[in-house]
Amino acid sequence: MAKRYLFHGEAAAASGIITSPSQEIIPVQAAASLPEMGGTATSRVEKFAHATTAGNILAFDAAYSQSLGYHMPEINAYGTMVTSTIEGLNILDVVTASRVVARVSSRHFAGAGQPGITVVGSYFENLRVGGKLIDIDLATDVFDRYDTFDKVSEAWDKDQPFRELMTRCSLEPPQSGEMPVFGGTLGCTLVRGIRNAPPEVEVQGGVIAIKQFGTLHLATLYSRGDQRRLTMLRAELRTPPSGSVSICSSTANGNFWP
């Protein structure tokens, strides 16, 4: 049976689940998903606001996503590029940003065991907490250099600076010196450092804790052999309104079958 390539690319610019003062769902905004044959999918939403009795929980000026899946016969490879962007973001008038972009791009050569996947092009622009600008340093260059899961595993064993970075950025602490992989998936933040955080917030890795608001989880990346899933911002709201809001999530991969 001849092998064929199964594309996988999906993006969502915003969504949420509110648990109090009432239970409600913020529908997924600007979603774009590929069929297994590839192609292109786009979506755009403008001037969105989700309000409750507590006011606007989530608002933005524009959100748009694109998923592309294509064959490159000149180099005998398959590409997937997924981008999700949001502009004029506002969460409860506490967290704002001019632009947030999640970009995941995959290239899989025929005969290669794993695709090379990069997150270069993902960034925060003018991210503010309480009106104060926060500077986020993302390690997109590191995951561009180690663009396959095998390269990441090898770097953990042989590249001490990478191991130290991953130890700080891992969502779960390493145990017994092993790379913190659970169920075949490595979870980490891309945040290498946060500068200019206001003194009234607490920063730990890629998490910002804001009193009487909740926590921001920045640039969370889940990696496994043939896939990367990147969510640029997840807000866990702890005081009414309570719930979770997800901003700019992109997933890309693909594999050969059978």
Descriptive account of the structure:
This protein is mainly beta. The chain has one domain (15-257). It is 10% helix and 62% strand. It is built from 3 helices and 19 strands. The strands form 3 sheets. Strands 1, 2, 12, 13, 15, 16, 17, 18 and 19 form a 9-stranded antiparallel beta sheet that branches. Strands 3, 4, 5, 6, 7, 8, 9 and 10 form an 8-stranded antiparallel beta sheet that branches. 40% of the residues are buried. The model has no long low-confidence stretch (mean pLDDT 95).
| Count of helix runs | 3
Helix and strand content put the structural class at mainly beta
Inertia-based shape? globular
- Total domains: 1
Encode the helix/strand succession as letters.
EEEEEEEEEEEHHHEEEEEEEE
Roughly how many Å apart are the termini? 8 Å
Radius of gyration: 19 Å
Query: Could you tell me the strand content as a percent range?
Result: over 45%
Question: Unreliable segments (pLDDT under 50, ≥5 consecutive)?
Answer: none
The largest pleated sheet is described as: 9 strands, antiparallel
Indicate the percent of residues in helices.
10-25%
* Average pLDDT rating: 95
Count the strands?
A: 19
